[in-house]
Amino acid sequence: MSVTITALEAENVKRIKAVEITPAPTGLTLVGGNNNQGKTSVLDALAWALGGDKFRPAAAARDGAITPPHLKVTLSNGIVVERRGKNSTLTVTDPTGRRAGQQLLNEFVEVLALDLPRFMDASDRDKADTLLKIIGVGEQLAVLDQRIKALYDKRTAVGQIAQQKKSYAEEMLSYPEAPAEPVSALELIQQQQEILLRNAENQRQRDRLAEVTHAKHRYADELQRLDERIEALQAQRRELQASYDAAVVAEESSTKTVAELRDESTAALEESIRNVEDTNRKVRANLDKARAEDDAAEMAAQYSNLTDQINEARRKRTALLDGADLPLPGLGVEDGCLTYHGKRWRDMSGSDQLRVATAIVRRLNPNCGFVLLDKLEQMDLATLAEFGRWLEAEGLQAIATRVSTGGECQIIIEDGRVKEDTAACDTVLQAPADTPAWKKGAF
């Protein structure tokens, strides 16, 4: 059973002259009053009584007091804590007979419950570390967070490189009409020489034809002259006739061969030779663009793979927190910072901040069932009521101060004393009907 504060009696502590308070066992008990009347002194007295000398105010004694400070706090487990005398000697009376002293109080009094602003003013990371310490997954979560950060940083770098390579590839020139491989000028020249040799052979055949044709004409001319001398030159004519016949056969053969010849053009090769450097430049440009596109695709694939790894690490991280015994549903840790329903501390409402802080502090020491809260005047009545209802539902006790003398305050401090005519709450926040208005109050 969590321990709560049943009663406080204080004299001559800071601004307190003489105060006796009986807070509600659960919910929110508001101590109100104007400035410099002793409201905060009530909380300081409770913290000093229960927390020991490290909570002793720098100027503990009330100015002008004749007698030294006296504190008496009664707890719900029956223990009575008292500080009195010039040295504020501590006396702890335990009805069960257990050892008495500050060490006993430390078993069920959580330091942060006496000094909640210490938690609320801590850095986001310190708040997160406190929560992780409570649920026992701090080391595992830190490993996952480090892995997620490393993967995220790597993915960011890969994504930037991939985008750069993609942009570079898109800006590069390409030539669809160029061949896939660089062209060899030597091979083109060799092809040209082979064609020139074949063409030379064709020309030789043409020259041969011209020679044969010329011989035929010459022989014909001689035959004409010899015909005039036919009788005398019969023998010579037969020889010439034979030569003529042979020339005719050779002419027919050559004519047939020449008719079938087709000269090959070297114009294309000559054009290729002239353009070989430009062609190879285009081929190299196409190859460079293809490599750049391949590099960009590879980096994009790496980026996608890293995204999958990050999502898996986040899934494990979520599962780790989902399986933890959290002090308050909706609590979490993102990027090393405490969150509540996805919101970081600075984005939470005042009520949510108090709820989160109170729940975490309570889990630090489940035996401690109370917290002390100073300066709640920044909270509106609806927020106060909401926070009070949550405290009651959780079985927690909160004693808080507020610069106000309105009906939301169950106890009014005036000039170091409890104002005797403090009215019962009759507006938004009401105390139980059977509770004296100046003593008790719960929201």
Walk me through this protein's architecture.
Helix content is 52%, strand content 14%. With 443 residues, it is an alpha+beta fold. Strand 5 (80-84) and strand 6 form a beta hairpin. Helix 7 (185-227) packs antiparallel against helix 9 and helix 11 (350-364) runs parallel beside helix 12. The chain starts with a strand and ends in a 25-residue tail after the last strand.
List keywords for this structure.
443 residues; alpha+beta; 5-stranded antiparallel β-sheet; 5-stranded mixed β-sheet; 12 helices; 13 strands; rod-shaped; disordered C terminus
In short:
With 443 residues, the chain is α+β, with helices and mostly antiparallel strands. 52% of the residues lie in helices and 14% in strands.
Q: How many helical elements?
A: 12
Task: Give the structural class.
Answer: alpha+beta
Provide mean pLDDT, rounded.
84
Side by side, the strands of the main sheet go 2-1-4-5-6
Radius of gyration: 54 Å
Major sheet characteristics: 5 strands, antiparallel
State the total count of DSSP E strands.
13
- Say what oligomer this is: single chain
Shape: rod-shaped
How would you summarize the topology of this molecule?
Layout: E1 5-11, E2 18-21, E3 27-33, H1 39-51, E4 70-75, E5 80-84, E6 89-93, H2 102-108, H3 111-114, H4 116-120, H5 124-135, H6 138-171, H7 185-227, H8 234-260, H9 267-274, H10 276-322, E7 331-334, E8 337-340, E9 343-344, H11 350-364, E10 370-373, H12 381-394, E11 397-403, E12 411-414, E13 417-418
Parallel strand pairs: 3-11, 3-12, 10-11
Antiparallel strand pairs: 1-2, 1-4, 4-5, 5-6, 7-8, 8-9, 12-13
